[in-house]
Amino acid sequence: MDQLLHQILAGLATGGIYASVALALVMIYQATHLVNFAQGEMAMFATYLAWALLQAGVPYWGAFAITVVSAFVLGVAIERIVIRPVENSPILAVVIVFIALLVIFNSIAGWIFTYTIKPFPSPFPAEPLFGNPYLSSHELGSMAITLVVLLLLFVFFRFTPLGLAMRAAAQNPVSSRLVGIRVGWMLALGWGLAAAIGAIAGMMVAPTVFLEPNMMGGVLLYAFAGALLGGIDSPGGAVLGGFIVGVLENVVGTYVGSELKLTLALVVIIGVLVVKPSGLFGKVHVVRV
Amino acid sequence: MDGSAPLLDVRGLAAQYGPTQVLHGIDFSVAEGGITAILGANGAGKTTLLRAVCNMIRTSGDVRLAGERIDGQATEAIVRRGVAHVPDGRGTFMNLSVEENLRLGAHTRRDRSEIGADCERMYAHFPRLKERRRQQAGTLSGGEQQMLAVSRALMLRPRLLLLDEPSFGLAPLIVQQLFEILRVINQGEKIGMLLVEQNAAMALALADHAYLLETGRVVMSGAAETIRSDESIRRSYLGY
Amino acid sequence: MRGLDRRQLAGLAVLLVLACALPFLVANYRVFQITLVLAYAIALLGLNMLTGYNGQISLGHGAFYAIGAYTAAILMDKAGWPYWATIPVAGAVCFVAGFLFGLPALRLEGLYLALATFALGVAMPQILKHKSIEEWTGGVQGIVIVKPDAPAWTGLSQDQWLYFFCLAWVLLLFVLGWNLLRGRVGRAMVAIRDQPIAAQAMGVNTAMVKSLTFGVSALYTGIAGALGAIAVQFVAPDSFSFFLSITLLTGVVIGGLASISGAFFGAVFIQFIPNIADEISKAAPWAIYGIVLIAFMYTMPTGVAGFVRIARARLARRRGGSTVR
Questions:
Q1: Least reliable range by pLDDT among A7-11, C3-7, C158-162, C275-279
Q2: Which end of chain A is more exposed for a tag (fewer CB within 10 A), N or C?
Q3: How far apart are CA B122 and CA B134, in angstroms?
């Protein structure tokens, strides 16, 4: 029982990371109806940037801040420069561009930083808080950071004029133009935010899985699954889905063995989707014949 | 019309959807603080005309706002110059609240402090919106969404208001109320209006100048009062 | 798709003659590479049926390629079957697998189907490595296949014989596929892709057609996997990672969706571009590959086949048509 509790709590910690990436995926999906497959690799690349800054002697939180801002700028730049030319192309063409970005980032990271696994420091102390046996300080810390990020995003989208404009642009680009919103830039901003979120997720996950070019592959897949489980058009659902997947992964991994845990977690998720195709909280699309 | 330069001056406006030509080089204008109506049957090109003014579709021709050319500019840029467009279908942000819809109308404004006061003024014009301010806009009735769309456009504090068939799908009493409010706003705040309507009677009662559009061409224009009182024109062109 | 006119038939005949001459004109290693192109072309036609013609996205077709490959390998290695007999079996096994997978997947659309097929693609290597079936699959090590010899009377090298063997299968499967796609079933597939509700209202058994399409698509890909395995002489779980599924999808889009000729363009791309990228940059070959992909999508979003179609139409207009728009 004790072990189960520990697994669930640890699952919530990793689930928080999946939840943030899931939210980033949903943000871009809501605006474009596309899933950004390159999200994970962009996050990994940003984490390497943080590593390089740390190697250069920059203190942790300074490196953290610079990385987040740089990731934001990178996200905006990619949308404006790489994605914009194909925005009216057939969907699969855009999917290929995403895959291309994925492959490019992965390859360049391997080239610049090599494929050797590197340790990445955690800003949190090594001893667990109050000596508790359930959660390490890093797990607790990353959960806290995840929750702060999610809260800030919620406040941003719900209570600021810019957040409102971004929501409007995603829902109804035509009407948004008619109130003077520059829809293209709202999209770019969305990409920037998604990239920044990804960078934070990368920096939180790297201490546990170690830094290497393929580190975000599993994270992206779980985040994708979590977003779909919660409902790809529901930000709240995506966050919840991310947490559920985190717990599921940990529990399945412990009790069934880690070779098949990816497969089994996915099978469970697909099982849920076959029962409720639009996800737990997604809108059921009633199609008017 | 008075002697000063028109608020909106359009010459040779042509527009097409793909290979199909919909507007064939038309001229029209809206006076400062005036109300111009564009009348015509379905398919005459009225909605296309408004979309063309905002450059939402491919156009050619000369479009000037208070003397400055706006043809060819991005829709968002034209809006920022003070042109508010109430589109056909109302263009409501269905998943956002009434209040959020209003605030979006003021998106381009710099004077943040005034926006709250302006919202209150819209609520004063349309009390029903105030009751529903936190409600999801998609749940409003047709008439209420129309009021919301007009209010949203007015939140811009525009110089020119474009209205695409505001009476569409509304009960006659609601249409009367709406048009009365438009008159009040036009007279009080001197906002120019370009009104596209199938309901000729109501449009002519509100407007001071009118054009009749038939398959993408202007076939008649004149003072609204003149057209209204001329029985033969009314019978042959406007069907009443 | 109409029937072929005489000019097109003549063109195909010329291509066929060239294809038969090819193995005698180039080195054995190149023959091997082109044999793989043929196998990939079959796989891409299969995937194109599902994604291009029927509109169902699959990110897991590498799994069917793997099943076909392992079927051939196990039959040859453990049961001593001759190589040529394994091909139809690989196809049949994959048809059943694809059909069975397609049934529950019916409820899933778009992204959800993509996730389901992706899960399949990710799961396959893990399943293939699993201890419980290790004695059949050879576990992580995989299975080594003995390359078949050409019959003595032909005087061909092993690579050349295998090339002709694959070519024969390509011809058979492409002719069958072409017939299928331009017949009633093909039209039903496209109807389901474009207007699923209308299709159903007109009496198309959507569920059956979609599952059948999955099955046939898997069959093609499975046969391709079997042929590929025999050519490469080796199967191992890590050769069939999800990356293979991505590669197949890339091939279909680059070649051109809903196009039979696109299968060949795509196959050439996925076989040779990685090699070229490797030559350009040893350090970051996949970065070059990615850049090439992006360049293709900027210039030919409808794939090579789509580009050819557009170019031909433009030429026809300029030659035969008036300048009146």
A1: C3-7
A2: N
A3: 15
State the burial class of residue B55 (Cβ atoms within 10 Å of its Cβ: 0-12, 13-18, 19+): buried
Is the pLDDT assigned to residue C215 strictly greater than 90?
Answer: yes
Asked if the C-beta of B94 comes within 8 angstroms of chain A's C-beta atoms, the answer is yes
Domain annotation covers residue A243: no
Reported residue count of chain A is 289
Touching A: C residues 229-248, CB under 8 Å: 246
Write out the E strands in C26-177: 143-144
Note the pLDDT of residue A262: 75
State whether the Cα torsion C96-C97-C99-C103 is positive or negative. positive
Please report the ipTM that was assigned to this predicted complex.
Answer: 0.88
Cβ pair A179:B92 closer than 8 A: no
Give the domain ranges of chain B: 1-82+158-240, 92-157
pLDDT at A165 over 90: yes
pLDDT, residue C221, reads 96
Q: Is the pLDDT assigned to residue C169 strictly greater than 90?
A: yes
Residue C228 has pLDDT above 90, yes or no: yes
pLDDT score of B4: 67
Per the prediction, chain C carries an average pLDDT of: 87
* Residue labelled with tokens 């390859």: A107
Q: Is residue A234 part of a domain?
A: no
Q: What is the pLDDT of residues A243-269, one digit of tens each?
A: 999 998 888 888 777 777 777 777 877
* Mean pLDDT across chain B: 89
What's the CA angle centered on C272, arms C266 and C273, to 5 degrees? 85
Total count of domains within chain A: 1
Among B55, B56, B76, which would you mutate to test the A interface (most chain A Cβ atoms within 10 Å of its Cβ)? Answer: B76
Q: Measured between alpha carbons, how far apart are the two ends of chain C, in Å? A: 27
User: Among residues A270, A225, A263, which one has the least CA distance to residue C121?
Assistant: A263
pLDDT above 50 (res B1): no
For every residue of chain B, DSSP letters joined together read --SSPPSEEEEEEEEEETTEEEEEEEEEEE-TT-EEEEE--TTSSHHHHHHHHTTSS-EEEEEEETTEE-TTS-HHHHHHTTEEEE-TTTT--TTSBHHHHHHHHTTT-S-HHHHHHHHHHHHHH-HHHHHTTTSBGGGS-HHHHHHHHHHHHHTT--SEEEEE-TTTT--HHHHHHHHHHHHHHHHHH--EEEEEES-HHHHHHH-SEEEEEETTEEEEEEEHHHHHH-HHHIIIII--
Q: Read off the pLDDT band of A43 (50, 70, 90).
A: very high
- Beta bridge partners, B209, equal B36, B223
C122 is written with which tokens? 């990710």
Prediction pTM value = 0.84
Q: Out of C51, C286, C296, name the one closest to residue A107 (CB).
A: C286
Reduced to 3 states, what is the DSSP secondary structure of residue C235?
A: strand
CA distance C70 to chain A (A): 20
Beta-carbon contacts of C186 under 8 Å, excluding residues fewer than 6 positions away, are C1, C53, C180
Find the length of chain C: 325
Domain hosting A44: range is: 2-216
Residue A93 forms contact with C (CB below 8 Å):
yes
Residue C169 CA to residue C105 CA, distance in Å, equals: 29
Residue C282 CA to its chain's centroid (Å): 28
Confidence band (pLDDT; 50, 70, 90) for A180?
A: very high
B34 touches B224 (CB < 8 A): no
**Residue A37 domain-assigned (yes or no):** yes
Fold of B1-82+158-240: Rossmann fold (3.40.50)
- Has residue A275 been placed in a domain? no
